[in-house]
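[job 4471] stage=fold_predict status=RUNNING
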Amino acid sequence: MEDIFHRVSIRKYEDRPVEAEKIRQILRAGMQAPSAGNQQPWEFYVVTDKKTIKALSKVSRYAGCAAEAPVVIVPVYRRNGLLFPEFAQIDMAIAQENIWLETDSLGLGGVWLAVAPLQERMDAARKVLELPDDLEPFSLFPLGYPAEDHDQEMRFDDSRIHYKGM
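[job 4471] inference complete, writing structure tokens
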């Protein structure tokens, strides 16, 4: 639970690789996410090739920080064979959050860069990764050892809680 209150967006990374065991642990956390009807629509592309990372950093005007990341995880989801396709992006958001929290718990930093549901960004990421037609890119998640440090802003706001029947 501590990571929920520690996690921040990290956009600058040290120039050092991330160990394969840590990447695998991060992906294990992502795949532990609940999903509608247990459909588990996810697949994950782990990108360490600098040329591909540079291309992904141009998927949107907000993705430039990915250019210097040692790793970019690109969660994608299947369109075919799902019980509840209308919930696939919700499933992916939960998996992405698990990925982010596990990244933080391992002493790494990352930032969630939105791709879906914006078709232009999805098409750009699809082109860079040469995805098959049945896979949709959901997000970009550049990660690495943080080269910046800042505190999480407290977002709790009692005025947004409404009780009925208590």
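[job 4471] summary: The longest strand covers residues 71-78.
[job 4471] exit 0
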